[in-house]
Structures are given as C-alpha cells and as structure tokens.
Amino acid sequence: MREQIQKYYANKKLFWRIIIVIAFLLIIIFLVSGNKWSISTNAQLSFAGELMPKQWRYALNIERFDREVALLEVNEAQFIIIYKRWNLIVPMIEKELQKAGLPDDLKYIPVIESALRENVSSSAGAAGLWQFMPDTAKKYWLVVNEFVDERFDVAKSTAAAMLYFKDLGKQFNKRTLVAAAYNRGENGLQNSLESQYTNNFYDLWLNNETSRYVFRLLAMKYVREHKYDFFDRDRLGGSYSPFVTKSMNIKQTTDLADRARRNNLWYFEVKKLNPWIIGNSLPEGKWNIKVFTQNK
C-alpha cells in the first residue's frame, strides 16, 4: 500500500513538472512571436515619408500589413535571394533616385516587382527588373524588338523608371498613389480616385493586386530593415559582390558567339552580363556591352 501511495505521488509530481515545462515553453513562444507581431501595432510604418494610418477605420491596415509580412516569412527562400542580390542592384538604384530628387523608398518597387532579377518576364508581357510593359518601355526610349529588349538592361531600364516616376509624380501628389499607379496604370488609378471621390490610397477599393501593392512595399521595407528579427543570420549568409566589368562597343553582328570567341571572350559571360541581347545577333547600330575584367 505504501509503495502504491509513493508511486501515485511520484507520478503526480512528474505530471506537474511536465505541465510546468510545457507552460514555460508556451510562454517563451508567445513572448518571441508576440514581440514580432506587435511590430505593426507599435511601429511608425511609412512609405516615402507618408505614414500608414492605423487609427479609427484604418485599423484594418494593421492586418493588411501583417498579411504581407507573414507571406514574406513563409517565402524565406525568395527573401534570402533578394538579400544576397541586394548589393548587385540596389546601390545603383539609390544613386539614380538621389540624382533624380526622388524618394529613396521607391527602390522597393523593383524588389517586389522582380525580386531584383533583371531577366524575368511575366505572363502578362511585363519584363525586366522594373517589369515594364512593351508600350511603357518604348514611351521612355527603351528599344524593344526581336533582337534587343532593353527592359532587361538594368541601367537603361532604371533611367526609364526615373522618368516614369517623375511623370507619375506630376499627376499624383502622394507617393503611395504613385506606387499604386505604377502597378495599376495611371489611367486606371485616376478613374478609381474620381469615381470614389478620394485622393487617398488607403480609402480606395481596388483590385486585389493594387490593393495589396503599397502594403507589400511597406512589408518589404520593414522586413529588410529588421531582417534579423525575422530570419536567422546564418541562413541569410553574406550578399553577392558586384561584378567587376568593363564596356565594349560593337557594331552589327550576325554571330555573337563567334565574335566573342574572336575577342577571347566567354559567350556565357556576354549573354549573362547583357540579358537585353535576345538571340545570337545584333542589328545595325552601335551597341555597348559589358564583359568581365580583372581590373577594378
């Protein structure tokens, strides 16, 4: 009998020890996740100097922001690639934005448009780092034809984006509206503003993609600036170093691979560094291509 009583109390003590350990772990998990998800309530979130409203009817904005943060966390692999490619692309964009007198936060547009990949195309026909449609690209002096597509040229497409932002800024007096117009198109957004009697992005009822667009920018900006609160430092690792290149001027060629061979170049490097060259030839004209160099 005595042994049974001792066994009963021993089991009871073990049970409560397990409960205490589980409770302790739950508290830790709650505190860690709570600190992360209380961010959107407490932080001052802004895009290009415009604060995201969170009071009164705008309390819904907190959930809209949190949703985009959660999606970034789930898609860890893509964020890692963005993080690693950052130094290849973004410093140049920052310089161009500064030269153009445009807000630095506009650099997050190509981040969410193309994940900083200059060679991507969408099913809708958008292409390149900035995901320009063909008509918009041609409007801002980019060559788009069967031989050349300068939407894939990082420097030229970025210069075109600066001009586009300036034009959008003349039509819309808020940067959140500029961003929304970049996604929706200026005419479509203008019609929504007029039909809904507002001049505020956060008051608009829009299609799902454009409705999410500014919140995606806000989330990317916040997660990028607080990356180690969301992702393990070791998993992120280091970022890629910019390529050391030089420019070479060439004229019309019908066999780019042969031209590369005769100039002691690697055809892969010509295609990799110049994704705007569609095939294996270049039409009449003077073309500036990038190639690797050992000299900094």
Structure notes:
This protein has 296 residues and is mainly alpha-helical. It has a two-stranded antiparallel ribbon. The protein has a two-stranded antiparallel sheet with strand order 3-4. Residues 24-35 have low confidence and may be disordered. It is globular. Strand 1 and strand 2 form a beta hairpin. The chain has three domains: 2-37; 46-236, Lysozyme; 245-292, Membrane-bound Lytic Murein Transglycosylase D, Chain A, CATH 3.10.350. It is built from 14 helices and four strands.
Key features of this structure:
Lysozyme; mainly alpha; two-stranded antiparallel ribbon; 296 residues; two-stranded antiparallel sheet
CATH architecture of the largest domain, please? Orthogonal Bundle
Going by helix content, strand content and strand pairing, the class is: mainly alpha
Mean pLDDT across all amino acids: 90
Query: Which CATH class of the largest domain?
Result: Mainly Alpha
Main beta-sheet annotation? 2 strands, antiparallel
What is the overall number of helices?
Answer: 14
Task: Assign an overall shape.
Answer: globular
Measure the end-to-end span. 86 Å
Write the H/E string, N to C. HHEEHHHHHHHHHHEHHE
Number of domains: 3
Radius of gyration: 26 Å
Biggest β-sheet: strands ordered side by side in the sheet: 1-2
Total strands: the figure is 4
The name of the CATH topology of the largest domain is Lysozyme
